[in-house]
Write a structure and sequence with these properties.
The structure holds two protein chains of two kinds. By secondary structure, chain A is mainly α. Chain A has helices at 6-9, 24-49, 57-70, 74-92, 96-141, 144-184, 191-206, 209-222, 233-258, 262-270, 275-305, 317-328, 332-362. Chain B has helices at 42-49, 74-80, 96-106, 112-125, 141-153, 171-186, 198-204, 222-227, 232-243; strands at residues 4-13, 16-26, 31-35, 57-62, 65-66, 81-84, 159-163, 190-194, 207-212, 215-220. Classes of the chains: A mainly alpha, B alpha/beta. Chain B: Keywords: Amino-acid transport, ATP-binding, Cell membrane, Membrane, Nucleotide-binding, Transport.
């Protein structure tokens, strides 16, 4: 090196400047996708509306609205086109930096259009499926008159699902914690307890809950086990689901307890708190806060498994829906049950989100 | 008879010997500073005194009572031997006041009102009374450590073990915490400190012990250790500390 003349020093050192990216290609793809999606959505909604006996004015309005909404992804395509033109002007004027920034903005708009177009396309496919086979799908699953005639018995059955869910959840919270703590008891004296706890989790996590329900529902009653044989089927369902889900929840508790740093144990013990007192006042309260999201996961699983309690002769929502379905030869009542499950799950998820957010605000971590 | 007697204490993790026969006597109202490189056994020695670490061999006596070996009521021992940790270890789910009153109310047999009154008094002393309702995560490191000291004092221990309590603090927060320890020393509280703050050790220590590979290699007054160390290892260690600007 070292031979740089005055002339050479005016030359650029380092790599050439980044050229502005291309917009047109992506824009054309996005535009094509947006138009295709809008067309598909239009055809799908026309097919769905066509299932009605007569084309009333509100139905025509729905057709129009859906088609217009499906055209929304075209808007960012237009924005991308404007940016592409602006990019060309800046490039011609030699303003590389402005051209680059316009190009980036244009590509961003085109990408947004592509994303929305794909979403519209998927929704159109779903609509098309509902209208498929001359509306057979819609008629099988979503017949308004059957919703009207069957929702009441189904909802009554769902009350049983809710009772079983809540009852089992309360018991699971207690039994799960007991099993988790048994697994954490130290020393040679705790060995049999640790062994029992491990065996319990291994066994009940492995057995499908429908089998546990069946065995508890019929077996315990058949064997005339004292106390248990006098339980109502509803309570037997609660017992069976508690047995299964305590195994899951025990593992969740254990993970939460073990996720705490050992220094929390050291701090509590150094103050003269006993092992049990440390668990109760320091470890478990912190662990419980951490395990709320995975706990909700297991609770949603438990709630869904209440749809299995029909095998032990409890007339829950799903059992009743099956009866209603076979009466009318249509699956709409079962869809009603499915919707009810969705409806109870969503608020729980939002509640947990809020709880976590509040917890973070309280401790100043927000 | 010394207040705290540590007699030939050994401690191993598997085949690794952390403490190889440490003996130390501490009288009431003494402030003993343990210095030495990381891994020399300072923290482990402190943790054997309140039985957070069981020892492999040897004996420890507090106030004439043997506190090592089976059958010792460690919970009673620990109420008498307070400890403050490097990383504060406050309970994050409890407010400052709850952190401080937990041990007195749950195991000290003190009523809630009385415990809170005393906690507020202690918090006042360290300038944290107005933070009594705050949660640890909302406090700075220095504030958390001051609360941790108060928490350890709340059971009225006769000895306080301080395990590198300023090592995790930002430099500008160290002074506040050391100021509190200085006051406690002036009040005559018996303390053992594992520390890297040589200047502070020099100022408050009645006795300085230099630990090297699990044993006390040299021991004497602060003046003796810092001005005229006898052992080559001590000289090397202090030389390195001096070179890093910490003396």
């Amino acid at each position: 090196m070292g031979v740089q003349t005055a002339e050479a020093s005016e030359l650029r050192v380092g790599p050439p400047p980044t050229p502005p990216g291309r917009v047109t290609g992506l824009m054309v793809v996005a535009g094509a996708a947006a138009l295709l999606a809008a067309l598909a959505a239009h055809r799908a909604i026309v097919a769905v509306v066509g299932l009605a006996e007569d084309r009333t004015a509100p139905l025509v309005a729905i057709e129009w609205v859906v088609t217009l909404v499906a055209l929304v992804p075209v808007v960012p395509v237009v924005a991308a086109a404007l940016r592409a033109r602006s990019r060309g002007r800046h490039l011609a004027a030699g303003d590389l930096v402005a051209a680059r920034s316009e190009a980036a903005a244009g590509r961003e708009r085109a990408s947004i259009a592509l994303g929305w177009a794909l979403a519209v396309l998927l929704m159109a496919a779903l609509l098309g499926f509902v209208a498929a086979n001359d509306g057979a799908v819609a008629h099988t699953f979503l017949k308004w008159e059957f919703i009207q005639s069957t929702w009441r018995p189904v909802a009554e059955g769902f009350w049983i699902n809710i009772q079983v869910s809540v009852g089992a959840e309360v018991l699971v919270l207690v039994l799960g914690l007991v099993v988790a703590i048994m697994r954490l008891v130290g020393g040679p004296a705790g060995r049999p307890l640790r062994w029992l706890s491990t065996a319990y989790v291994d066994i009940f996590r492995a057995i499908p809950s429908i089998i546990v329900l069946y065995l508890v529902g019929f077996g315990l009653a058949l064997a005339e086990v004292p106390v248990i044989k006098d339980l109502t089927p509803l309570w037997l369902a609660i017992v069976a689901l508690t047995l299964t889900y305590s195994a899951y929840v025990a593992e969740v508790y254990r993970a939460g307890i073990e996720s705490l740093h050992p220094s929390q144990w050291a701090a509590a013990r150094s103050l003269g708190l006993s092992y049990g007192m440390t668990l109760r006042t320091v470890i478990v309260p912190q662990a419980v806060r951490r395990i709320v999201p995975p706990l909700l996961n297991d609770f949603v699983g438990l709630q869904k498994d209440t749809a299995l309690i029909g095998v032990m002769g409890v007339a829950d929502a799903f059992t009743r829906a099956q009866l209603e379905s076979s009466d009318v030869f249509n699956l709409t009542p079962v869809i009603v049950v499915a919707v009810l499950f969705v409806i109870i799950t969503i608020p729980q998820a939002r509640f947990v989100d809020r709880m976590i957010a509040r917890e973070q605000r309280k401790s100043g971590r927000a | 008879m010394a207040f705290l007697e540590i007699d030939d204490v050994h401690k191993s993790y598997g085949s690794f010997q952390v403490l190889r026969g440490v003996s130390l006597e501490v009288n009431k109202h003494e402030v003993v500073c343990l210095i030495g490189a990381s891994g020399s056994g300072k923290s482990t020695l402190l943790r054997t005194i309140n039985a957070l670490e069981p020892i492999s061999a040897g004996r420890i006596k507090v106030d004439g009572d043997v506190v090592t070996g089976p059958g010792v009521d460690v919970n009673r021992l620990r109420r008498n031997v307070g400890m403050v940790f490097q990383s504060y270890n406050l309970f994050p789910h409890m407010s400052v006041l709850q952190n401080v009153t937990l041990a007195p109310t749950k195991v000290g047999g003190v009523g809630r009102a009385e415990a809170e009154e005393r906690a507020l008094e202690l918090l006042e002393r360290v300038g944290m009374r107005d933070k009594a309702g705050s949660y640890p995560d909302a406090l700075s490191g220095g504030q958390q450590q001051r609360v941790a000291i108060v928490r350890a004092l709340a059971t009225s221990p006769q000895v306080l073990l301080l395990d590198e309590i300023t090592a995790a603090l930002d430099p500008e927060l160290v002074g506040d915490v050391l100021g509190i320890v200085r006051e406690l020393a002036a009040d005559g509280l018996t303390m053992l400190l594992a520390t890297h703050e040589m200047g502070f050790a020099r100022e408050v220590a009645s006795q300085v012990c230099f630990l090297h590979q699990g044993s006390i290699l040299e021991r004497g007054s602060a003046e003796q250790i810092f001005e005229d160390p006898q052992e080559e290892r001590t000289r090397q260690f202090l030389g390195r500390v001096l070179a890093s600007g910490r003396l």
